[in-house]
Input
Amino acid sequence: MALTGPPNADTGARAWLLSSTPQSVFQARCQRVYLSWRAFSRNPIAMIGLLIILTLLFIAALAPLLTSGDGTAQTLQDRLLPPSAEHWFGTDQLGRDIYDRIIWGSRITLYIVTLVAVIVVPIGLLIGTVAGYLGGWVDAILMRITDIFLAFPRLILALAFVSALGPGLENAVLAIALTTWSPFARIARAETLTIRNAEHILAARTQGHPRRGSCCITSRRSVLSSVIVRLTLDMAGIILTAAGLGFLGLGAQPHAA
Amino acid sequence: MADAQSPVPEGTAAKPFPPPVFTKIFRQVFTVTLTFIGLTAITFIIGRVMPADPVLAIVGDRASREVYEATYIQLGLDKPLLEQYWIYLSNVLSGEFGKSIMTTRDVLDDLIRFFPATLELATVATLAGIFLGVPMGVLAAVNQGRWIDHLVRVVGLFGYSVPIFWLGMVALLIFYGWLGWLPGPGRLDVYYDGIVSPDTGIILLDAAMQKEWDIFRNALHHLVLPASILATFALAYIARMTRSFMLDQLNQEYVLTARVKGLSPLGVIWRHAFRNVLVQLITIIGLTYASLLEGSVLTETIFAWPGIGQYITTSLFNADMNAVIGGTVVVGICFVGINLLSDALYRLADPRAR
Output
């Protein structure tokens, strides 16, 4: 999306993007992306957020260029130095450069957030849409399970999981994912319930799509927007939980940490 | 107003059977039972099924064959999984969490000793969050778009996004390390330790009841820093929600009517709009309280606060599974209990929800 910046008004690209009679499916899609980008870029808060995220992504991607080492080199005579020209953020108790470690650490944070999101959203969507569409006792059972996970304190559950599985980055991701999927199932179920009898689902069914497939596929798009909103809100929480686990010594292990 | 909104025609007042109150109570009890079973099932799975070898976790890898086998039988691992769960469930119901390896006491005794500290911390933090957060939220909503609104929103964002352990360490560095205004970690200074008998376990209460005012003051001093750190989260959340609830109410027509009638602005805000907000706030406050009981894990670690959070984490590093699971169950029960309570209060406070 970031690639479709507003083109120059003189070129034909803008006219092509704003034409009221798109000539191809591709053009129509481009137009939709362009229009939503225009609406998005008019919102200053959204732009600031985008800028912050892009900066973070750049920093993580360019870590080798921005740092002198990978942040694991220990120089014991340089322990606990204050910030200086050589060590911008100072050094830690093992003489490692904190600036380097923060830059490299952004990769781990992004890795955790992405991985949790990738695990959590499909699980939540699947459970929620199945529960919402099938209804009856399947719904009752799935939602009670969701409720139980919702009712559980997040960090404590993650702690218990990590303690059973053993500390480590992957286990932390797994533990956070296990405590994060439940709200998505709730949202997906609620959305599925509202569109279960909507006309486009009926239309898909009359066209001969299989019963379950039609609902799950067509509903996914409308569920997705609420899920994305919830996910962005949750990402901050995921990072904080991961940071909390890391602080307690249960997140990324040496030498990654 | 109720008549105008109610779509139910008159004359349909035939009493249903069973009465709706009983159905509601029954449903509530059913949900709670189910949640409790789920909670114990999850902790059971974490404690008994997931570790590669629960026996090894208890006896260690240097134990002899006999000890290993005796523990294996003692844990009931030779029985089918469902039966194991049933034994576990009945143990939990009778408060039997097993022995802690670390403290060599019953986990339940440990929990009774450690829990009041967490309760004290979380309660004071929640109260601070309510008394500061609610007025802040109301003020922000009334002055929407002005600097005070922006200030409250920034404070809200800050409290929400700053990791609690970072804030705690910085606060400790500034107020204890540099300025020396407040005492360091722990609940009391060492020379005050063990003077008041722990009747309730909540030092502030115990000291006040036994009229040990020096100790009361000392305990209060120790409480200020961790409670404020914990309260930033509560404050941020409560202020944010109060603001949005209040904005919702202030845009309603009854507020306009009250203003047109010539009521004083303060009367409109506090007596009309805020009373409606109060009902919604109960749920939010309940949620905050529950999450503080949990969020205290990190605060307790930083401030060496001998509460349940610290108990769980230290047990964790000593592979003390009984203690971890016991603590998890207790915190989970508190969580569910508080949610239930706020639900009940909500129904009580709001005539529309009854």
Observations:
- The radius of gyration of chain B is 25 Å.
- The interface with chain A takes residues 31, 34-35, 38-39, 42-43, 46-47, 50-51, 160-161, 163-165, 290-291, 293-295, 297-298, 301, 312-313, 316-317, 319, 321, 324-325, 327-328, 331-332, 335-336, 339 of chain B (CB under 8 Å).
- Residues 1-9 of chain B have pLDDT under 50 and may be disordered.
